[in-house]
Amino acid sequence: MIAQKKISCRIKSLNRKDRKGKELKKPGALGVLSGSENKKSRYMLVYETLKRAFDSLRLQDKPVIAHASLKSFGQIDGGAQSLLRAVLDSVGALMMPTFTYKTMITPSVGPPNNGITYGAEMDLNSQAEAFTPSMPCDKLMGIVPETLRNLPHAKRTSHPIQSFAGIRAEKLLATQTIQNHLAPIAALAEADGWVLLLGVDHTVNTSIHYAEKLAGRKQFLRWALIPNRIVECPGFPGDSAGFNAIASELVNDTRAIQIGNTVVQAVSLRVLFVKVIRILKENPLALLCERDDCERCNAVRESVLG
């Protein structure tokens, strides 16, 4: 289990009596509430609590790529905007995936062993939407990256499936091309960047996909709709459902804190890449999911086992 740093925090009461100035009982570590308090949802996290917690991760001068579940924190005063404000005030630069899967097109034919059944989703092609920079990110990404995308100073890349948005991350975002959609992660690592998991685990850690690529794991070809045409998008990654197996290898390299009901983890990208590459060199089938019907993981197995 990853050791979690405990720090004091402040929580905001929803009880009107407390608003009159009556001092609240001191909360547990990082605002962990008792069962009865959780059931009544009497408290919510505030910006100051989040900022102090994120500051304890010591990432003030580091660029980060973040993945987040707002729901995992419980109630936050100000919601996703307060969470992002606290992160932005605690790191050097922030980037998040803003992927748009509704642009994807499935052709009737294509290259073999591509982790896809051609023609299987032809009926969905008519529902595909052409990518534009203002397209909302997929709902599976959660509300936090969509909120970041809409902040006044945010910039977004133009990859039709796997775009990124960020603030103070212009140079990182500018490295992305349709041929190399993970280039911003490579640039982030070169800048001594970190991955920040806000109430989520490694199954959503996009940076592991770049480490897979560095290790030589099979990549895929996908297609997307942009205004007036369909474009090829090479380098599409495999499935990430098995990625949490890396957690045990990162115990001593993870900075972890508990905030409210959730755990926040931070890992250096350079360290992450070294660990993933080593594991995949030792076992080319590591980090794959266990689903029998996962076409991409099965395609990776076939590329390894023949």
Describe the protein:
- The chain is built from ten helices and 13 strands.
- The protein is an alpha+beta fold and 306 residues long.
- An eight-stranded mixed sheet has the order 1-12-13-9-4-5-8-7, with helices on both faces. A three-stranded antiparallel sheet has the order 6-10-11. A two-stranded antiparallel ribbon has the order 2-3.
- Strand 7 and strand 8 (164-167) form a beta hairpin.
- Helix 3 (79-88) crosses helix 5 (143-149).
- It is globular.
- It starts with a strand and ends with a helix.
- The model is unreliable at 6-41 (pLDDT under 50).
Q: With helices defined by DSSP (H or I, 4 residues minimum), what is the helix count?
A: 10
How helical, in percent, are the residues? 25-40%
Residue windows where pLDDT falls under 50 for at least 5 positions? 6-41
Going by helix content, strand content and strand pairing, the class is alpha+beta
The major beta sheet can be summarized as:
8 strands, mixed
For the CA atoms, what is the radius of gyration?
Answer: 21 Å
Shape: globular
What gap, in angstroms, lies between the N and C termini? 37 Å
On the 0-100 scale, what is the average pLDDT? 89
Strand order of the largest sheet: 1-12-13-9-4-5-8-7
Helix/strand order, N-terminal first? EEHEHEHEEHHEEHHEHEEEEHH
